Amino acid sequence: MHSRWILRSLALLAVLTLALPVAALAQTSRVEGMALQGDYIKDYTGIYTYTSEVPNVGNLIYGELGTLSDPNNPAIDNSNPLTLDRSMGAVLGNLWDGRFGTWAIHLREESAALGQGDASGQPNPGLGGIDPNHNANEAIDLMWGKKSGTTSFGLRLFREYHVLPVTGSDKVAQTRAALGAMLATSSPGDPDYTTPWRDATVTSVRVDGDTTTVDLHGVPAAPPSGAGAARIAVQQLVWTVTAVSGKPAVRVLLDGRTVPALWGVEGLDEPLTRAPRTDVQAPIWLIDPQQAAPVGHTFAANLTGTVPDGVAGLRVLRGSTVVSDQRVQLTASAPQQGDGHVELTLDPGTYTVVAYVPGPAGGADRDSDSHEITVR
């Protein structure tokens, strides 16, 4: 006997594709080996020039052994084992749970050159590929930054509701059904959404205490594009499984085996838990009406968001014509997630309903989620 359950499945939306090459968590020696300017690297080696990146590099402790030998400290065999340009430091984004921003401290033998994480990195702007303004002064830097706004760069999780056939009413059967839908390439109902799991399948699901173990088959060896995409894809699985099973932890097996990492994401040999909502989820979701849903003359629009001041926007378009545009007060403001409900009355036809995070006065929306619907 089959019963039908409305299950949650998370989908990914590519909000922004970066046009510049990105290396995640590179060190200065690797950057120089790749012959890239620091301006093209989105990690801690660029934060001395682009201080706005301080909140975006994540928690980090690093040590650099230097890139040049020290001519003032020759060894007996003249191999100059001691180096110049050594450094160490830390970037801490979770002090006081991040309420007071990101703090960073750096200790370096020489001040970093423009666009680089050290004093002598090449290639670099300036004469001979080296910044002519660099110096050999020792430097101690204390940096602070705090992200403002909720614009989502890269991939973020959106929630879709799916009606799926489920055999039985237990959480194992429900979790397996929801996970199978999440893995299917054709599953997302909204054409803006996608999934990187490429039709992998579920071999088994079991629940032991607070942990749900899922065994997958056919997971593609090639990772999603970019380290950030791989991390979000793993969290897509974690949030989907925990939402349905009600258990806080997920253990992932591939063809019956425990693996230490997947697509470069470490820690799969231990149970996984949800990353903070603000790190992985889009700040605004249009829950109802769903994509391509037929609705009556009068219907409810439901949205969920993690929005500053708890104020979201709801816009209705018919073609390019704005039919209505209003502010919606949510039940909570960021960093908490709040819900909003609006009753709409529209003439028959096809419309686009857009839930969005309002930008500054007269400015563009910061984030949005839109569905096309048909009013009967």
List keywords for this structure.
376 residues, 11% helix, mainly beta, Immunoglobulin-like, single chain, five-stranded mixed β-sheet, 38% strand, disordered N terminus, 3 domains, four-stranded antiparallel β-sheet
Task: Describe the model.
The chain is mostly beta strands. The chain has 3 domains: 2-15 and 154-280, no CATH class; 28-145, no CATH class; 284-375, Immunoglobulin-like (Sandwich), CATH 2.60.40.10. 11% of the residues lie in helices and 38% in strands. The chain contains 4 helices and 23 strands. It has a 5-stranded mixed sheet, with no helix packed on it. A hairpin with a 2-residue loop joins β14 (261-262) and β15. α2 (171-183) runs antiparallel to α3. The longest helix is centred in the middle third of the chain and has 19 residues, at 227-245. It is globular and about 75 Å long. The protein starts with a strand and ends with a strand. The model is unreliable at 1-26 and 123-127 (pLDDT under 50).
Concise summary:
With 376 residues, the protein is mainly β. It has helices at 28-33, 171-183, 227-245, 277-280; strands at residues 2-14, 60-64, 68-69, 83-84, 87-92, 102-108, 139-145, 155-167, 193-194, 201-208, 211-217, 249-254, 257-258, 261-262, 265-266, 284-288, 294-295, 298-305, 311-318, 321-329, 338-345, 349-357, 367-375.
